[in-house]
Amino acid sequence: MIEPVLELKGLTKSFGALKVTDGVDLDLRPGEIHALIGPNGAGKSSLIKLVAGELAANSGSIRFDGREINGLDQIARARLGLTRTFQVSSLIPEFSARGNVMLAAQARHRSVFGFVRQVSRDRELTGEAMQALERVGLADRAAVRVSELSHGEKRLLEIAMALAMRPRIFLMDEPMAGLGQEGSSRLIGFLDNLRREAPILLIEHDMDAVFQLADRISVLVAGRIIARGKADEIRTHPEVRAAYLGEDEA
Is residue 86 part of a domain? Predict the structure, then answer.
């Protein structure tokens, strides 16, 4: 059996009386896309934040490449190669698309923000940024300020920033959001190839994309995994159809 790169065991997180993650077991294996789906409020984004180190778990274990990482903060986890797509709110609106990706690449080189003037003259970082932007189809928008990008372009920019970090795992929270049909189709093809570089834990509401991409799908409802399997198994699972797909059991 292939050893997982990421393994969650009994992961639990509560905010007062509200339990947003309830004893979750989940793993991610080399070369795969493991999709995490569920209705709004199921706790999907909270789970990603627990893995990334943005939230601290109340109990349970997170192992990355065989190492327990519960005690590591978000920066330390990113430097190990565990990188999530950046949220739009984390982008710097006054900077160009290229400048944002350069800062992500700089973080990989263990420089902490700052020194923007030096970074802007660094040819290596510029080259890395342009390569990442080229891969997501934003090379011609490199000099455009983030504030002038469309919502879909910002989502692609987040992925370019994650690429610049050269992660060993991608944590992606709804990368298809705001892309439209053509943009989503291109991104599906891109992610299908990207899994060869690093496995992807994917949160996505676009079920067509999920069923096309995912090797395995886990269904989260009220903080608990209620089902796990391949696309065909999830499509026909009675609990999933009732709780998530909005269908009554036959």
Answer: no
Q: How far is CA 212 from CA 23, 170, 197, 215, in A?
A: 28, 18, 18, 9
Asked if residue 189 and residue 128 are part of one domain, the reply reads no
The single-letter DSSP state of residue 150 is: -
pLDDT of residue 113: 47
Between the alpha carbon of residue 71 and those of residues 6, 13, 51, 110, 201, the distances in Å are 15, 15, 11, 20, 21
Task: Assess contact for 72 and 132: CB atoms under 8 A.
Answer: no
Residues 177 and 157 both lie in one domain: no
pTM of the predicted structure, to 2 decimals: 0.87
pLDDT value at 92 more than 80? yes
Among residues 132, 165, 198, which one ends one of the domains? 165
pLDDT band at 104 (very low <50, low <70, confident <90, very high): confident
- What is the residue range of 244's domain? 1-81+167-250
- Host H or E run for residue 219: strand 216-221
Q: State mean pLDDT over 217-238.
A: 91
pLDDT at 118: 59
Position 139: which residue type? A
pLDDT of res. 183 = 83
